[in-house]
Design brief:
Helices cover 29% and strands 19% of the residues. The longest helix is centred in the first third of the chain and has 17 residues. The radius of gyration is 26 Å and the shape is globular. The structure holds alpha-D-glucopyranose.
Length: 712
């Protein structure tokens, strides 16, 4: 569904008709979002001064209320708008349903590690089904910000460093949340955020300025938003930060010229939390009234909770600082989404749904499957994994072995710890007959008893508090003391299987070196414990691939695979390193991930329908091991010579392929000329003839290499 489909004749007529009846105050009311709801707010709703309510704390009903309470509270608020106000314009209830609702899925960075857009779409559909049962009709997701600096806490919420992978996941999430008809009771309006370049904050410090050229914006940061718009996303959210000196909430070039005029976006843009009034802090507005005029003119249609619009737009219009047409267009966009969301026909939620919508067997199964496929096997020395029943006495240790709520990760306000099980509990459930499990309450006890066991499974990693908004770190090492715990176990001569829970790629070279096997599980969600147990004992074969580069050290970031060659590339003459105190290159590359089986790539082929493309590129992939497994086959491209510098590699395609032992499949990618375009000197898309190299392989550093000459 493209954004242009958001324009439907009957809806446009209804919008025009309604708009013609609205007073200026009622129009401004639609641009106003509240995040609390008491008697004063009820009166504001009755007066038509509220367009949306952000359910920012836990569900309206709070934890422990009856299953239908949240829907009933939303209905009660909706009744004030829909039955008691003059024009009966329904409210849009929004909430951060980022990676699941009551069934919590892996954090989006983990979901991206599955390289499985179908499962990501399913996860969003499950989240929509559960959240809508509680009265939520709009989510502030998917977060599609590209992140190249993992010190930034919000790297956890996105799909990593690559525009192609992030665009694929962005479109999948929009399809899952909205479906083909966002008015369906179990669908919700999506919101691609935070537009744009938020992940480029200096130093990985949230909210800080970003200096990003228009070319890098267009080739790296904008594509995942474009993918959401082309998938028909109903809304976008403007980011907090300033980009190249212009705060995003006042950035008319990006919010109107690019988003509306170039891309044809027909939905509406909501500010981030109070980001409009924060234009005063940015120093581009003298006061809130200035900020209101700047933001509305730029293209921010709805004010998230700051009250800047409701308090100032009236006077700014009266004083001629804003034209009425700007306000009308903002209100038109908001009404368009409300009509398409079916709110005028179905403003209320059936409160009976909630009793059976949450945490169904199917929802849990989807969460477990996606968690399994998000887990990345980073090391497996002498195939120590899967454990199966090779070890009789296994210790399950570490600060997160018994964690429950911590498995959810950041932005999971509706997950309930009592509705999940820990890794230790899951391992106990899954352990084969005859395997004895030992649990130690502390690292001291673990060291004392470690001689009793054949192997230790050690669960280390980050608490979710180090992830998410304004949870940036200056050091990408594991939290203090954790590596020492591992070293003490290894010093006892016990083989260790390391499980890492994290909201970002951590710099853990020593931990990987010391461990016999390493599973990187991100924050895996409600079924994360079971997914890890399935992988530990071989009931599932890991297939995850890194959606971000893993650095050797904090000082190495930003580090990403699609970097430029520079005039002195590594290996040219005697340039062999970039730091005198660190080996060159990442700890582990983008796209990397192992399996319990092995795969071989053979017989690369390329065929051109015409010298100007498209090009069919293919290779055979064989499962050369003894277990069935899935491989994420990746296609990378390099444009050798162009009118601007180009990345040394760019992901242009990927396919998950399941193979039985000994089975071979030919995997084919079709490269169209549009896949070869880039942003040229004049900031316009450009396709140039010349030589291209390509690779088909298991990650961004390996694979079969070929070439073709693009001519026209
Ligand atoms: C927050 C976040 C944004 C979220 C919004 C509503 O500050 O930046 O991602 O959707 O406010 O909670």
């Amino acid at each position: 569904m493209s954004n242009i489909n958001l324009l439907r004749e009957p809806v446009e007529e209804k919008i025009n008709d309604l708009l013609s009846q609205m007073t200026k105050e009622e129009k401004i009311g639609q641009t106003n979002q509240l995040h609390a709801f008491g008697e004063p707010e009820k009166e504001a709703v009755r007066q038509g001064q509220v367009g949306s309510i952000l359910n920012a704390t836990s569900a309206f009903a709070g934890i422990g209320a009856s299953p239908s309470a949240s829907a009933e509270i939303c209905n009660a608020i909706q009744r004030v708008a829909f039955a008691e106000s003059r024009l009966k314009i329904p409210l849009l209830f929004g909430r951060d349903v980022i990676h699941g609702y009551r069934t919590v899925f892996p954090i989006p960075l983990g979901q991206a590690a599955s390289w499985n857009p179908e499962l990501v779409e399913l996860a969003a559909a499950v989240a929509a089904s559960e959240a809508s049962a509680d009265g939520i009709k709009w989510t502030f997701a998917p977060m599609v910000d590209i992140a190249r600096d993992p010190r930034w806490g919000r790297v956890a919420e996105g799909s990593g460093e690559d525009p192609y992978l992030a665009s694929t996941m962005s479109a999948a999430a929009v399809r899952g949340f909205q479906g083909t008809d966002m008015s369906a009771a179990h669908k919700i309006v999506a919101c691609a955020k935070h537009y744009v370049g938020y992940g480029g904050a200096e130093g990985g410090r949230d909210y800080e300025s970003a200096e990003i050229s228009m070319r890098t914006l267009r080739d790296i940061y904008l594509p995942s938003f474009r993918a959401a718009v082309d998938a028909g996303v109903g809304t976008l959210m403007a980011a907090f930060h300033d980009i190249n000196g212009v705060p995003m909430s006042a950035h008319r070039q990006l919010l109107t010229d690019v988003l509306r005029l170039e891309w044809g976006f027909k939905g509406f843009v909501v500010s981030d939390w109070a980001s409009i009034e924060e234009l005063v802090n940015h120093g581009v507005a003298r006061h809130r009234a200035d900020a209101a005029a700047l933001a509305l003119f730029a293209g921010v249609d709805m004010d998230m909770v700051s009250g800047t619009y409701i308090e100032n737009l009236g006077s700014m219009l009266e004083q001629g600082h804003l034209s009425p047409e700007i306000l009308d267009e903002a209100v038109r966009r908001i009404l368009r989404i409300k009509f398409l969301a079916g709110l005028f026909e179905h403003p209320y939620t059936d409160p009976r749904r909630a009793a059976t919508a949450m945490l169904t067997k199917e929802n849990r199964h989807a969460a477990c499957l996606l968690a399994q496929q998000s887990i990345v096997l980073l090391k497996n020395e002498v195939s120590i994994l899967p454990l199966e029943n090779h070890f009789r006495r296994i210790a399950i240790l570490g600060p997160h072995a018994h964690s429950r709520g911590e498995l959810f990760g950041t932005w999971s306000p509706d997950g309930r710890p009592e509705e999940t099980i820990s890794i230790a509990e899951a391992v106990k459930e899954a352990a084969p007959q005859g395997v004895e499990l030992i649990f130690a309450e502390s690292s001291d006890e673990a060291i004392r008893r470690i001689k009793e066991v054949d192997l230790a499974v050690l669960v280390l990693g980050e608490h979710p508090i180090r992830s998410g908004e304004n949870s940036n770190v200056s050091d990408l090492s594991l939290p203090p003391g954790q590596r020492q715990f591992l070293e003490a176990l290894v010093a006892q001569g016990i083989p260790v299987v390391l499980i890492v829970l994290a909201g970002r790629p951590l710099a853990i070279p020593e931990e990987i070196r010391l461990s016999k096997a390493v599973l990187y599980a991100w924050h895996p969600g409600t079924e994360g414990g079971r997914a890890l147990a399935d992988i530990l004992f071989g009931y599932a074969n890991p297939s995850g691939k890194l959606p971000v580069t893993m650095p050797r050290a904090t000082g190495q970031v930003p580090i990403y695979y699609n970097h430029k060659n520079s005039g002195r590339p590594i290996g040219w003459q005697d340039f062999a390193f970039r730091y005198v105190d660190l080996p060159h290159g990442p700890l582990l590359p983008f796209g990397y991930g192992l399996s319990y089986t092995t795969f071989q790539y053979n017989n690369l082929a390329v065929s051109a329908i015409a010298s100007s493309g498209p090009y069919d590129i293919s290779a055979e992939v064989t499962n050369t091991g003894t277990r069935s497994g899935s491989e994420v086959v990746q296609l990378y491209l390099r444009d050798l010579v162009a009118s601007v510098t180009r990345p040394v590699k760019e992901l242009k395609g990927f396919q998950r392929v399941a193979l039985k032992p000994g089975e071979t499949k030919r995997v084919t990618f079709t490269l169209k000329p549009s896949d070869l375009t880039f942003t040229g000197m004049n900031d316009l898309p450009l396709l140039e003839p010349g030589e291209f190299h390509f690779w088909v392989g298991p990650n961004s550093t390996e694979g079969l290499q070929g070439r073709f000459e693009l001519e026209f």
